[in-house]
Amino acid sequence: MKFVHVAEAPLAAKGDLLAFIVFGDPAKDALFTALNKALGGALAEAASAESFTGANLTTLVVPTLGRLNVKRIVVLGAGTGKREATPLQLRDLAALAHQCGEKLKAHTLAFVLPAGAPTTTAQLVVEGVLGGAYRFNKYLTTEEGKKNSPVTAVHLLAHGKSDKVAAGVARSLATGITRGTAIGHAVNAARNWINEPAAFMTPTEMANNARAVAKKHKSVTASVLNRAACEKLKMGMFLAVAKGAAEEPTFIHMVYTPAKKAKKRVALIGKGLMFDSGGYSLKPSDSMFDMKVDMSGSAAVIAAMDAIATLGCEHEVHVIAACCENMVSGGAYKLGDILIGMDGTSVEINNTDAEGRLTLGDAITYTREKVKPDEMFDFATLTGACLVALGPYTAGVLSDHGKLASSWLSAAAATGEDMWRLPLNSRLKEQLRSPIADMRNTGERWGGTITAGLFLKHFAKDTPWVHVDIAGPASITTRGAQRNPVEAPGLPWRPSSSIFAKRAQRAAGAVAVHGVDR
Ligand code: BES
Ligand code: MN
Ligand code: ZN
């Protein structure tokens, strides 16, 4: 799919489908009015016939019947209130426009950018279209299933009615397209890795993904520690989780070195449970079904590295992922075991299903001791409790570093990533007390996301650190498709297993790549 800025006025746009956004009542929109006039009132007539009010994420499709160069028009509703779309909303609207294009078998989609900074709006629209066009269809064998998007070209038209765009604006749009493309492709790569069944996407295969990213970029290296190397480093928690699996664990460490002297050293750590059965604290079948996604954090950070190297970054960036499977077998770790982490902490296991914090604990210690970053961030499908607290769309953010947490949250808001801070309330630490070890790995049910965060905090010590729990958003379908009532009328966010199988084809780990790409 090609994205280009085309210096055309919307009224002169060419192609199969012209998309533009209205904020509420279409009659009040200048472009709607101008196009309506050119079509002899057909737009207003269609709006009234279909009771189109410009409500958020609704569409109105009207054929132009030869009166304009473009074959059809789709009006995208952005709701009333604000005159500007939020980043998240803009991405969803772009995904929606693509979806209409797909339905209409359009090859060329012309998208009129709304008001706002041209770089950002272009970037978000490109991300939205790429995200909306994503399919995980490699295992489908029917013609219908194999079908990819018919849209091959997306023309971005600058905001305003004239085709005369200042050189500066054109350059900003080009930058936006470059960024959107790099990020969109990285997000889709992460989705592919997440959607891939655990039988193929093993710790070894994940290490190969990291090596492939490093091979693409001169600025990136990837090294992989095997079990013996991790034993040498005394990663007792990570290795205990890996013990029950036939698959060998891999500990991935990637480094991006900027061309100029680095401003800061930043570490991105991802949870890499290629499959989480729960271990001897076995998950019920319905909860286990989705657990190939338990490596979403590692997919997010490895894919982010690709985008970072493509776009360049002023910081030295380290990506760390401890990859393994949590399985049941004669060699698996047991309830009541006492593990010694890389930093020497002893941990009594009262639930083998709280494995992510064990692997991350050692990954955090490794990062703190070997990388010595100025800042570190971890991304993990860590707790079901985070879904209970925030719902399926929102990632939980936990940190005791006020400044880093708020800069993280403002980056998330600017890039349209749905995140919300939860308190890292140290009073809950008493839940992790053990009479025979320094800590237990789980507390009570109440505050489950927070106690998991407190467990990680123990290993982060004084290094500035932010923890992002992505248990919810890792399993959401492609943005736009999920929320769009056109395509998914009343579909529950996480349907029962039977219909999930069908939806999984389109499933995407809507991972936090956007938040870490710059
Ligand atoms: N990988 C799961 C968390 C999860 C749940 C991710 C649902 C995505 C969707 C994690 O390893 C886990 O099992 N957590 C336990 C923690 C509990 C034992 C304290 C949980 O959430 O039940
Ligand atoms: Mn688990
Ligand atoms: Zn897990």
Question: Could you please describe the fold and organization of this structure?
Answer:
This protein has helices spanning 30-38, 42-49, 87-103, 118-133, 143-146, 167-195, 203-216, 227-232, 236-242, 285-288, 296-311, 356-371, 384-390, 402-414, 448-460, 497-503; strands spanning 2-5, 17-22, 59-63, 72-77, 108-112, 153-157, 220-225, 250-256, 265-276, 316-326, 338-340, 346-348, 375-380, 395-398, 419-421, 439-440, 465-469. With 518 residues, it is an alpha/beta fold. The strands form three sheets. An eight-stranded mixed beta sheet has the order 7-8-10-9-13-17-14-15, with helices on both faces. A six-stranded mixed beta sheet has the order 1-6-5-2-4-3, sandwiched between helices. A three-stranded mixed beta sheet has the order 11-12-16. The longest helix is centred in the middle third of the chain and has 29 residues, at 167-195. The chain is elongated. 53% of the residues are buried. Mean pLDDT is 91; it is low at 477-518. Residues 273, 276, 294, 355-356 line the site of zinc ion.
